[in-house]
Write a structure and sequence with these properties.
- It is built from two helices and eight strands, in the order H-E-E-H-E-E-E-E-E-E.
- With 166 residues, it is mainly β.
- The chain has one domain: Porin, CATH 2.40.160.
- Strands 1-2-3-4-5-6-7-8 form an eight-stranded antiparallel β-barrel.
- The longest helix is centred in the N-terminal third of the chain and has 13 residues.
- The model has no long low-confidence stretch (mean pLDDT 80).
């Protein structure tokens, strides 16, 4: 039987949701961890460093930091993952209604079986996705490959609540 979200997990998700300027919520399905939910905050690095809008600038200045917390519900355990990724916008799709992106970063996953101890593992994330260009409630879809910690492939669908850099 799965345990409910712990108060610490809920507090961490809310902290990301409140502190970062571009917030997102999402659902996820992982090949090893089943169904999950999470929150992500995006922070445009170029705008943070220079205080100016970086649209149309070099690729490095258009990078976004994406910090996220994922809570999965596999059978017989709880799995929580904290991620720190850099996302790079690639090209506009169609008439500019969406934009593709790629990214990479690290994750720290902690699995807590219903019976017994817990274990934490550090790994690498590889990300590819599409975000629709809307000022609020912009849908996004991405595929995440995690290696080195919990090796799995995940499909993510979510809403970027307050927009993002690209």
């Amino acid at each position: 039987m799965n345990r409910p979200l712990r108060p610490l997990s809920i507090a961490a998700i809310l902290l990301i949701f409140l502190l970062l300027p571009a917030c997102a919520t999402f659902v996820e399905y992982g090949s090893d961890t089943d169904f999950g939910i999470g929150a992500r905050g995006n922070l445009p690095l170029g705008q943070l460093l220079t205080g100016e809008d970086q649209r149309g600038a070099s690729a490095i200045s258009r990078l976004e930091f994406a910090g996220s917390i994922h809570q999965f519900f596999p059978s017989g355990a709880d799995y929580t993952e904290v991620n720190a990724d850099l996302l790079l916008p690639l090209f506009r799709l169609g008439d500019g209604a969406a934009r593709s992106y790629v990214g990479s970063g690290i994750h720290l996953g902690r699995i807590s079986p219903d019976v017994g101890g817990s274990d934490s593992k550090l790994g690498l994330n590889l990300i590819g996705g599409v975000r629709f260009n809307r000022p609020t409630m912009a849908p996004f879809f991405e595929v995440r490959a995690s290696v080195g910690g919990v090796d799995q492939l995940s499909a993510v669908a979510g809403l970027q609540l307050f927009g993002g850099m690209f």
